[in-house]
Amino acid sequence: MKSAINVPDQDNFQVLTEHDDDHFVYDPSYLGIKRSDGLVFIQITLNEGRSTDQKKLLYKTIAEGLHREAGVRQEDVFINLVEVKRENWSFGSGVAQYAT
Q: What SS3 state is found at 45?
């Protein structure tokens, strides 16, 4: 997955949460995609600048990987990218490590 969008080694920070039925709301057929209760939401915050082709490869790589490794239906993989400018990161110590 990381190679699809050129992510540096060790750049891996994740927040995983699970929600009960009362706090998990989705449309089971938005855009004609038949979703199940096995739906997985993935939101990735990343630096802006990747091409549309890179993003498409990322989506495909994630969906295929989750299907192959965990049996998740590809229709149940919902991915959202949040692109930010490089200066909007601090990885610690109050320093903007990516700011130029």
A: strand
Cβ atoms within 10 Å, residue 86: 13
- Which structure tokens are listed for 88? 């909007």
- Main-chain phi, psi angles of 18, to 5 degrees: -120, 150
Q: How many domains does the chain have?
A: 1
pLDDT, tens digit, 9 for 90 and up, residues 61-89? 999 999 999 999 999 999 999 999 999 99
Is residue 26 within 8 A of residue 39, CB to CB? The reply is yes
How many Å from the N-terminal Cα to the C-terminal Cα in the chain?
27
Which range of residues forms the domain containing residue 83? 1-9+38-87
Looking at 1-100, list the stretches that DSSP marks H as alpha helix, in order from N- to C-terminal side: 52-70
HSE of 74, CA atoms in CB hemisphere, 13 A = 8
